[in-house]
Amino acid sequence: MVMTSFAKVPRLAALTLTAMLAVGACGGSDAADSAESADTAATESGEAQDGASGDTEAASSAVLQVSPSLEIVGDPLVPLEDPANDPAVGEIAPVITGNSFDGSDITIGGETDGPTMLVFLAHWCPHCNDEIPEILKLRDAGSLPDNLNIIGISTAVAEDRDNYPPSDWIVEKDWTWPVLADTIDAEAFQAYGGTGFPYSVMLQSDGGVNARTSGSSSAEQILAWIEASLLV
User: Environment class of residue 31 by beta-carbon count within 10 Å: exposed (0-12), middle (13-18) or buried (19+)?
Assistant: First the structure.
């Protein structure tokens, strides 16, 4: 599937595209209904964000479900098609700064003190809900590399779908790593070339892409992917 540059797609059309991709990845039964509900959520959430934008101080202390905007530096990655033959490997990922749920700034990409695994998650996606416990098994068993940074990205937020709001959902799932709240238009997901959920990107310490993959996996498969990604 050829994906249009996200920055050139109107808000509702862009989120509809994201919803359709996510439905395919998450086994939804009705793409049209899912896209329509995502459009409605986009309109409502967008209006709420527009209404709150006039009070910066209040917004910074409130619980956010989406970032009002993102600062994106660098070129977007090509959409993921074949993880085994990924032209994005070796490319420098865009550096994106947005907000955590508490309103504080958070950045993905750029130079870090070790490799970073980015995990893009949609609160309503059943495969994302399956994936998180598998990652937590590795955490609880002490199987994750000591120098591995992990950051979640909450994306494709829809008020009328399961497990809303994502700020509560991520706590209930016992996710203990930092989380970037994507915009209502899922701009971070698009900038990193996402095509389905869950979606993981391994970055090396200089911000270059080591590997990308999509779909839920067992703890053993996730660990094997991490270890192989770190060898690139």
Answer: middle
Decide if 90 is inside a domain.
yes
Count of domains forming the chain: 1
Q: Which residue, chain included where needed, has tokens 């090509």? A: 78
- Whether residue 44 lies inside any domain: the answer is yes
Where does the chain have alpha helices with state H? 11-26, 31-52, 56-61, 126-140, 166-172, 187-191, 219-230
Average pLDDT over residues 123-145: 98
Q: Which domain holds residue 12?
A: 6-230
pLDDT at 26: 63
CATH of residue 107: 3.40.30.10
What lies within 8 Å, CB to CB, of 181 at 6+ separation is: 64, 65, 66, 67, 98, 99, 100, 101, 154, 157, 166, 167
Query: In this structure, is residue 57 part of a structural domain?
Result: yes
- Does some domain include residue 1? no
* Model confidence, pTM: 0.79
CA angle at residue 196 from 199 to 209, to 5 degrees?
40
Contact by Cβ (8 Å): 114, 144: no
68 Cβ partners below 8 Å, 6+ apart?
49, 52, 53, 59, 99, 183
Contact predicate 63/179, CB 8 Å: no
In this prediction, residue 25 carries a pLDDT of 53
